[in-house]
Specification:
Length: 220
């Protein structure tokens, strides 16, 4: 009986969170779709303020870590609703959650309230692209990252980025947008979701950390 009651409570809470996303998309995002697509001054910032106020910017993090504690399935339902208002904003929400979930709990906790961070995955070796990053190792054993990644969706205008390098020695790199070893520039050709504008990310000797247990996993 208790298990059934708990399940019902979780289902009701999920339905409420999804309904809130639907209402936010209908009332706030859809009427601003053109402004968001044209990246008019302040449009994306205003939309992100609403996203952050509702908690969707860090939905996967636990409540103890300043998040909402949603599971991935619930977040996807919310993204579907947000995307009905503006697909680019939905992508920004996905990238922000993926970025924070990839970080260790203590680093994710350092991300300021309502800041927008974006995950920038490094392409696998088998993918034929000139956009590459290279990892080397300092004398103290810490990985150093250099190179360029493009296109990085959602990185333009972000407060910071999280780069995840897979492989035998995975590493994660979190950099604020104003870090001296980071340059973020608009791509000449955009990919359609212009509110999640693509950028060219250039790195010059940024120090990464060995990939730890991510925040979302640690909180589970």
């Amino acid at each position: 009986m208790n298990a059934i009651a708990t399940s019902s409570e979780v289902s009701a809470e999920r339905a409420e969170i999804v309904a809130l996303a639907r209402e936010l998309a209908r009332r706030e995002l859809a009427p601003q779709a053109l402004a968001l697509d044209e990246r008019r001054p302040g449009a994306i910032e205003a939309a992100w303020g609403l996203i952050a106020e509702a908690g969707y910017d860090r939905a996967l993090l636990s409540v103890e870590d300043g998040g909402v504690g949603l599971d991935a399935g619930s977040l996807l339902l919310c993204l579907e609703e947000i995307g009905s208002g503006d697909a680019g904003v939905a992508l920004l929400v996905l990238l922000a959650n993926a970025a924070l979930a990839a970080l260790p709990r203590e680093r994710a906790a350092q991300i300021g309230e309502a800041e927008r961070w974006a995950l920038v995955p490094a392409p696998p070796e088998r993918l034929a692209t000139p956009a590459r990053i290279a990892l080397s190792t300092r004398a103290d054993g810490r990985p150093v990252v250099a190179g360029m990644l493009s296109p990085a969706l959602g990185a333009l205008g972000a407060d910071g980025i999280v780069i995840v390098q897979a492989g035998e020695e995975p590493a994660v790199l979190a950099l604020a947008a104003d870090a001296p070893e980071l340059r973020i520039e608009a791509c000449e050709h955009q990919l359609g979701l212009r509110s999640a504008a693509a950028a060219r990310v250039s790195l010059s000797g940024a120090t990464a950390e060995p990939a730890p247990q991510p925040a979302a996993t640690a909180a589970a």
